[in-house]
Amino acid sequence: MATGLLVMAIVLGALGLQLHYWPTVVVRLGPRFFLHTRAVAWAVRVAVISLALAGYAAEPSAAKAAAVLISCVLAAGAGFFAPRRALPVLEDPAHERAETAPLADEALVLGRSDEQGRCVAWPVEMLIAHHVVHDRVGEQRVVATWCQACRSGVVYAANVDGAEVELEIASVYRRNMVVRDRRTGSIFQQATGECIAGPLEGRSLSVLSAELVRFGAWRSEHPETQVALEPERWAGLVPKRVIAWMLERATRRVRTPGLVALDDRLPAEAPVVGVVCKGVAAAWTIEALRLARSVRATVGGVELSLGYDASTDRVRVWRGHDDAPTSAHALIPHVRGYWAGWVEFHPESELHAR
Question: Domain span at residue 9?
Fold first, then answer.
């Protein structure tokens, strides 16, 4: 019995180190769990130490005293491996003009151009390292986000109902990143922008049009673009190179659960482009767009067009059935990522495949 109690203490202490990922694995814990991680951490500490002391009291020995010491160390670290420590949010990165930016033409960037033609490009390699970048395009505060679990990049206006938000990564929930507003503690789902727990629950971040594209193509169309730069000093818990390696391996080998059963219309990791118009969701496989090159469709009563350029790996979605978007204002925000990530939040989505 004594040994069993000590083993339970050590196992619970080890699990407690990464308690921010408990809802990632046990989805039924729900998003409100993230509002109470400090309280859960203290509960874990008390439970671990209590189990360890009970085990030692039942059968004192030098070996069990060592186990108590190990349990106490683990208990002290409850919640230590919070995602924000490994993937530090990037605030107001320095910018450099495209013509002198140290970025290869083949590098993927997430680019945004506003209605006045002011542009910023965020290298995907940088987004992977931080997952959340607070920046500015012209006069507008924006948040560029990246979810490595579903390979999706989304840019949001950095406010909700006029109040500015300060986002940082919270964890992964329902196969997708969730972020926390440091001002209110509210939790937002990256895939939808919806606040799913906290004071702002039920409200949403505004999605802004942005494009995932090769830097060379983006620069040729937007020669005045500014490129966000990685800071010289890395503030993460472990080296950036190690984080990139871990994320690449983990997200390809481990598929976290969701609340919606995987839709077998496509393989889970099939890349798709999804749009939502007036509450109606539709998705196209990249392969279908590659073969067709351009598609005209009506979603939710809205006429739209999709175009794909294989040479630049670029998808564009715009209003109307014109051959090309007439302006940046005509572009429609879309989500590009894995099918498993899209269908988790849009289970009734129309699907257009090859």
Answer: 2-81
